[in-house]
Amino acid sequence: MPCVGLIVNDGKPLALSTAERIQSHLEAQGTSVVRASSAGGMVGFANPDQHLRSRGYNACVPAGFTEEMELAIVLGGDGTVLSAARMTAPIGVPILTINTGHLGFLAESYLQDLDAVLPRLVARDWSVEERTMLVVSVMRAEQRRWEVLCLNEMALHREPLTSMCHFEIAIGRHAPVDIAADGVILSTPTGSTAYALSAGGPVITPDCPVLQLTPIAAHSLASRALVFSDREPVTVFPATPERLMMVVDGSAGCYIWPEDRVLIRRSDHPVRFVRLADHEFFQVLRNKLGWGLPHVAKPGNGTAP
């Protein structure tokens, strides 16, 4: 019997009711369904006075989810998708993202299309697109203190009411560089349209095998975003006496102390997105962010009178 996962933002009543509808339909077609809450992939912020999460990123895989699953259906917004990516990438299960949130930048489908989507899932009429994920590890000497998978970005920055920081950054075999800024962002191509975009970084198409380093409020006109091969591991040393805050994909993180270092490398486990049609990235940019529209146009509203 085929098996499908169902990852639900159980804080949204609409997502819960839709999950019941999907599960009933699939089970009636002879497909078994394993449900999980998207909270399982939202690691949260580690308390510095407690033992940090050192079990590794496989800890986010839900009970009952296995490599034999055909796919997992994700119900929620973009935050739910980021969580689901951590839950499924280690076992290679593709995810179909159905938006029940607001922007839906990572959504493949919407609720109004559900009646057309479900028969295609049963008929296996879909393809898979892989997106790069990162492994973010906090190291102290040779001890791994914390680790998580990342689809968008790792942001390391100062705490409120503290001064500007220095970051020593080593990219692969290249000479380390020093950046004076409020923080730094290390992002994937998928994350180039998220926090890195707000910090002035370029948009990168998802098929480019690169990473992006973007300073946050850099204290130098020469400090600009840098794009480099994703084969290069990155190590960030906090060259400052105060502790720093690290946030990964907006839903995971911990404090970074002066004796720590952050190691970022491309994961061997990409997230696998189910595609129901050819994924036209420039069209997504146009529809969601207004990229490439005439200057008199407003996204979603046609042209101004």
Overview of the structural elements:
The structure is a single chain. The chain folds into two domains: 3-131 and 270-289, Rossmann fold (3-Layer(aba) Sandwich); 134-266, Tumour Suppressor Smad4. The chain has 305 residues and is of the alpha+beta class. The strands form four sheets. A seven-stranded mixed β-sheet has the order 3-18-17-10-13-14-15, with no helix packed on it. A six-stranded antiparallel β-sheet has the order 9-8-19-16-11-12. It has a five-stranded parallel β-sheet with strand order 2-1-4-5-6, sandwiched between helices. The mean pLDDT is 90. Helix content is 16%, strand content 35%. It has helices at residues 13-28, 78-88, 114-122, 195-198, 281-289, and strands spanning 3-8, 32-37, 44-45, 71-76, 95-99, 109-110, 127-131, 134-140, 143-150, 153-157, 165-171, 177-181, 183-187, 210-216, 226-229, 234-238, 244-248, 252-256, 261-266, 271-275. It has five helices and 20 strands. The protein is globular and about 60 Å long.
